[in-house]
Design goal:
Elements: H1 2-34, H2 40-69, H3 78-102, H4 110-116, H5 119-123, H6 127-157, H7 161-165, H8 174-195, H9 200-216, H10 228-253
Helix pairs in contact: 1-9, 2-3, 2-8, 2-9, 6-8, 6-10, 8-10, 9-10
């Protein structure tokens, strides 16, 4: 009887977590897409890139190295990681068109022209300037990642950090790996920077909150590879670091030449 009651309570908690994550992610995406001067297929592509890139793709790259390649006792197989990536992509391909349609932004063509005049687009400069800014953004990401791990994740997790990462053997070139991930993050953000409608401050806040929400909300689910203390520490770590990164990245991209 106690086992049945415990199982029922766990199902209720899982259902609440699912509902909470769904609401957080949907409200985040709706707010962000409402500020982008694109419609139809173009807006859907931007939505898929940001939603899937932030929620699944970039996280699976992290998981592949930290839970498999760099650990002597893998916690996840590469087959599992690939399966989760594919599942996430299918979800994004189904979810984002419906979201764009539900917002009434599927057939309206008027807002496309407005995006061409938005200041952030001209501020990006030529290919050389854009490449330099992308490299700076990648270094900013690596810096935010490392500092958040040192001063937020590890102190908050305490002893709970050890069970998951006790067999982890991080190579000396790990910062370069994070710089490479930073380049990918920059490419994910570029379409939003180009087509965002609003002030530069609104851009920084919207992207920062978007990255923080999509990056951390899924950790509200119980995770078989993390105890609760580590999971909660990761929520704080990702929320803070991704908001700061999003804010600084948009500030760099939108700088005047």
């Amino acid at each position: 009887m106690f086992t049945t009651a415990s199982s029922a309570n766990q199902e209720e908690l899982d259902g609440l977590a699912f509902a909470s994550v769904s609401v957080i992610e949907t409200l985040t995406m709706m707010w962000l897409l409402s500020r982008i001067n694109l419609t139809g297929v173009k807006l859907t592509c931007v939505a898929i890139l940001f939603f899937h890139g932030t929620k699944v793709f970039m996280m699976m790259i992290e998981a592949a190295f930290f839970l498999n390649i760099w650990t002597t006792t893998p916690l996840m197989s590469l087959a599992e990681i690939n399966a989760m990536e594919l599942q996430g992509l299918v979800m994004a391909l189904l979810y984002c068109p419906v979201l764009v349609w539900s917002m009434g932004k599927w057939g309206d063509k008027k807002s496309n022209a407005a995006s061409l005049a938005f200041p952030q687009r001209s501020a990006l400069g030529n290919l050389t300037t854009l490449t330099k800014r992308l490299l700076v953004v990648s270094v900013v990401y690596a810096t935010c990642y490392i500092l958040a791990g040192m001063f937020i994740l590890i102190p908050l997790a305490g002893e709970s950090f050890q069970p998951t990462y006790e067999h982890l053997q991080v190579p000396v070139w790990m910062p370069l790996f994070q710089v490479a991930r930073g380049v990918l993050w920059g490419l994910i953000l570029l379409p939003i920077v180009i087509h965002f409608s609003g002030t530069k401050r609104q851009l920084r806040i919207s992207v920062g909150l978007g990255l923080a929400a999509l990056g951390s909300a899924q950790l509200l689910y119980p995770n078989p590879h993390m105890n609760e203390a580590l999971r909660y520490a990761h929520i704080v770590d990702i929320t803070v670091s991704m908001f700061v990164f999003g804010w600084i990245a948009c500030w760099i991209f939108a700088l005047r030449k």
